[in-house]
Amino acid sequence: MTATNRIPLSELEQGIPFEQRHIGPDAEARAKMLAQVGYGSLDELTSAAVPDVIKNAEALDLPGARSEAEVLAELRSLADRNQVLDSMIGLGYYGTFTPPVILRNVMENPAWYTAYTPYQPEISQGRLEALLNFQTMVAELTGLPTSGASLLDEGTAAAEAMALSRRMGKVKDGVFVVDADALPQTIAVIRTRAEPTGVEIVVADLSEGIPAEVAERGVVGVLVQYPGASGAVRDIKPVIDQAHELGAVVTVAADLLALTLLTSPGELGADIAVGTTQRFGVPMGFGGPHAGYMAVREKFARSLPGRLVGVSVDADGNKAYRLALQTREQHIRREKATSNICTAQVLLAVMAGMYAVYHGPDGLKSIARRTHRYATLLAAGLTAGGVEVVHGAYFDTLTVRVPGKAEEFVAAAREGGVNIHLIDADHVSLACDETTTRQQLTAVWGAFGVEADVDALDAAVSDTLPADLLRTDEYLTHPVFHQYRSETSMLRYLRKLADRDYALDRGMIPLGSCTMKLNATTEMEPVTWPEFGQLHPFAPARQAQGYLTLIRELEERLAEVTGYDKVSLQPNAGSQGELAGLLAVRGYHRANGDEQRTVCLIPSSAHGTNAASAVMAGMKVVVVKTADDGEIDVEDLRAKIEKHRDELAVLMITYPSTHGVFEEHVADICASVHEAGGQVYVDGANLNALVGLAKPGHFGGDVSHLNLHKTFCIPHGGGGPGVGPVGVREHLAPYLPNHPLQPAAGPASGVGPISAAPWGSAGILPISWSYVRLMGGEGLKRATQVAVLSANYIAKRLEPHYPVLYTGPAGLVAHECIVDLRPISKATGVSVDDIAKRLIDYGFHAPTMSFPVAGTLMIEPTESEDLVEIDRFCDAMIAIRQEIEKVGSGEWAADDNPLRNAPHTATALGGDWEHGYSREEAVFPEGVDAADKYWPPVRRIDQAYGDRNLVCSCPPLDAYED
Asked: Among 235, 407, 520, 794, which residue's Cβ finds the most Cβ atoms within 10 Å?
């Protein structure tokens, strides 16, 4: 018997390469697109688009691509090298049970994790409502009226509180006092952030109040930990009152679970509360991502850093949610911004908020009581066995004094399967949490040589929380925290909210500068494996060998991709990567004795975080003009280099430029800065146009941050998480971030921690590791080439209808293009907002609006969108251009047309129809299939109304009745 179509087994074993799953256009589609653009191959196209002076001389030196099954097996092998013991380390990171209905339907659901920041609120109502729940939860538990939509972690939130205190407080020249009983990583992050801006930090024992010698120096602000890192629960009202008498702003870093039982910071007099919501159902993940929080008194609301969800009304007067007070953000205020924070931790904030919805106030209080009860029993057993418990009042954490034997007891506990925290040679701390079991108590007692009986102690001992600090007010009274008790109702609530949103699981999100590409399921799957998800960030390094290997390999591969010598994965957002990179530059200059080098040159077209980060790094921003063709004005740059030659610290550029073109002079620009003694920061926001084609570290960059949530497939999560590693050349490596609790996280000479956890959002690093492993060097290069092809294809298709504003070599764009609506708006009155909202009726998320040029749309298709979807988008844009012509010709009235009234809801179709266009034209425009129609839940939202009438928590019931 003879085989007619013999295929070698080795070929059959390979299967379909993952690259073909990741890259949307297949060979036939690419040929069609290349013909439209006018090139014969991807290599020919990118050879014409990318300047010769920056091109890679050699292929990327990366391991070859592996199949999805092989990569999962490799990750399983790494996960198996992590040893997950029961954690009683505490220090801001706790075991928690993620309700399965939330795990499956939020954390693992692409409807939630592939959404973008809700800058188009009409199609983001689901996650905006979820964030309002989060804000309400935080505000009510902290007793302060206004909470933001999350910050990056507790350490960052505390540092932001320090900056807010300095900005808003009465005392302008003085010290910032930090409780000696604050979390050690929080103290370290505050120090890192304070030093460049000249704020002096004093760490003091506040148990007896602010020391007199500190008070007399002037106090800008005070941060108190409640309960303390040692576990101590004390009445902090006296120190709050004393601080206020000194004119200081008071921040309380508070544990939200403890606040279900303890008097709230607001009631005690605090101005600001900060912390983390990690223990509300979010896995530890070796340190992140987790949603930090900040809540403030009403007078600080308009200066709150980060994002803030508010309530407004739509065109029909119905309640609608949107991001409030966006004029605070660095996108607009640049070097005068309240913060450089460009993102939030939306996905994790949604999980934490839904944890409160799922459990309600009674359930949360029950979890807190159980946690405290375990701590009480643990203390009673240790005390009965002769072990000294330092504090008599505590919530979940005990500090015990064991002179000279601390290491011995920590090792014994580890042998018994439990990690506890070594404070010093004489002290150990132990923390209970939602997951603590009787077996853990027995194991810990055994480690200390104690025998005790849980049931006997439970019958004999009382709780230890001070009676005068017990909470008496009600919280979480809104119906949302009471009506979803069954899993059926919770499931349907989550589905209802998801249906109100538009995410990548519905269709293309063509946002320029944001790179909304495929987040493959294979890449996402390991994130929730317990070997990655349940590891404490301060667990002994020998228990995290799988993680540490993954981190080292990812750092090395990112260094190879970018041409840098060293990468730090600690920054947990692009903005934090910017700050880390600029602090490295600052550290380098200061080490060389060039402390006067503080000028940061930034093009006028740059992302707003660049300027805000520079100010935070203690630098003076000098703006460089942008030429008419969108490139840096080289003559202005040279003049400013010369003017500031002796003070020049760094030039920050984005490459390809923010205008979406490959600038031909980039190598010369870098050389000019270096000749003047400065460094070059290449913003990695647009790295998706370079991977495999060019390396910033080879064409002149000294430092870059990389957005893993853009180029390397970590999903945007509705506005976070993000990861912003920083890569540097060898001379800057000594000044990368480090961490006080993990020496392996950075150099001893580093600038201090940027994030609370040693490796930032380590829990999602398997995503980017997997992407690089699945694609290999050649696959990554082809992804870049197809991204460039897709952008140029869109530019060619739209050019007859909309002017393409900027092009580079050979008339080509990079990975994104900008279409200019200004002449169209001037001629017809149709605005960029009108077009963006009309795209919703066509079933699309709008491109980036009015950035970097007002009155334009910046479009980035990425490599993941197939030709059918790209053509559908182009067809919609062309159809909208024809609609604009009807407005311009007078066929449709300027104040009553489908664009001005977009988006159209299902409700809008009911009743009398008095518009000059039909219902069908409104909701089923050309190319929209009625069977697959996406219906926006609200009409166009009145942004100004929401800012004038600031409501940032769940409205009371009578508001809905109105």
From this structure: 794
Output phi, psi for 599, to 5 deg.
Answer: -85, 130
Nearest 5°: phi and psi at 753? -80, 140
Coil, strand or helix: which one is 428?
A: strand
Distance CA 800, CA 816 (A): 17
Query: What DSSP string runs through 51-69?
Result: -GGGB-SS----PPP--HH
Domain boundaries along the sequence of the chain: 360-469, 530-773
**CA 130, CA 347: separation in Å to the nearest integer?**
10
Per-residue pLDDT, 961 = 38
If one counts every other C-beta atom within 10 angstroms of the C-beta of residue 530, the result is 11
Per-residue model confidence (pLDDT) at position 959: 45
Q: Is residue 700 classed exposed, middle or buried when 0-12, 13-18 and 19+ CB atoms within 10 A define those classes?
A: buried
DSSP label at 40?
S
Report the distance separating Cα 871 and Cα 874, nearest Å: 5
Sign of the C-alpha dihedral computed for residues 55, 60, 66 and 68 taken in this order: negative
- Give the pLDDT of residue 335: 64
Phi, psi of 677 (to 5 degrees): 90, 5
CA-CA distance, 657 to 651, in Å (whole number)?
A: 14
Q: Which residue has the tokens 């990695």?
A: 684
Q: Which amino acid is at 754?
A: I
| pLDDT given for residue 958 in this prediction | 46
Rounded to whole angstroms, how far apart are CA atoms 332 and 641?
26
Enumerate the H helices of 204-345 as residue ranges: 212-215, 237-245, 265-268, 330-333
* pTM for the structure as a whole: 0.96
| 852 preceded by a cis bond (ω within 30 of 0) | yes
What is the CATH topology of the domain spanning 360-469? Aspartate Aminotransferase, domain 1 (3.90.1150)
Calculate helix-pair angle for 42-49, 27-37, nearest 10 degrees. 40
**How far is residue 50's CA from residue 662's CA, in Å, rounded to a whole number?**
6
Nearest 5°: the CA angle 960, 501, 68 is 150
Block means of pLDDT (10 residues each) for the chain, 962 residues, are: 65 78 98 98 97 94 96 97 98 98 98 96 97 97 97 97 93 95 98 96 97 96 98 98 98 98 98 98 98 96 91 94 75 66 92 98 98 98 97 98 98 98 98 98 97 95 95 97 97 98 96 94 97 98 98 98 98 95 98 97 87 93 88 93 97 92 92 97 96 97 96 96 97 98 96 98 98 98 98 98 92 95 96 97 95 93 98 98 98 97 93 92 94 95 80 57 38
**Is beta strand 272-276 parallel, antiparallel or unpaired with respect to 292-296?**
antiparallel
Per-residue tokens: 388: 């000294």
Closest CA to 903 of 123, 342, 319: 123
Structure tokens at 25: 């256009």
Residue 481 Cα distances to 474, 689, 960, angstroms: 12, 45, 16
pLDDT computed for residue 828 by the predictor:
97
Helix (H) or strand (E) holding 310: strand 309-313
* Residue of 659, 648, 666 whose CA lies nearest to 685: 659
| Helix 406-415 / helix 438-447 crossing angle, nearest 10 deg | 140
* Strand 388-389, strand 397-401: pairing: antiparallel
d(CA 788, CA 771): 19
Angle at 530 between CA 526 and CA 531, to 5 degrees: 80
What CA–CA distance (Å, rounded) separates 764 from 743? 21
Taking the C-alpha atoms of residue 136 and residue 954, their distance in angstroms, rounded to an integer, is 6
Q: Could you tell me the CA-to-CA distances from 447 to 440, 450, 539 in Å, in that order?
A: 11, 7, 18
Q: What are phi and psi of 274, to 5 degrees?
A: -135, 165
Cβ atoms of 283 and 433 closer than 8 Å = no
Residue 12: predicted pLDDT: 60
Query: In the numeric block, which tokens belong to residue 476?
Result: 């979480």
CATH of domain 530-773: 3.40.640.10
Residue type, 53: V
Determine the straight-line distance between the first and last CA of the chain, rounded to whole angstroms: 81
Give the pLDDT score at 956.
Answer: 56
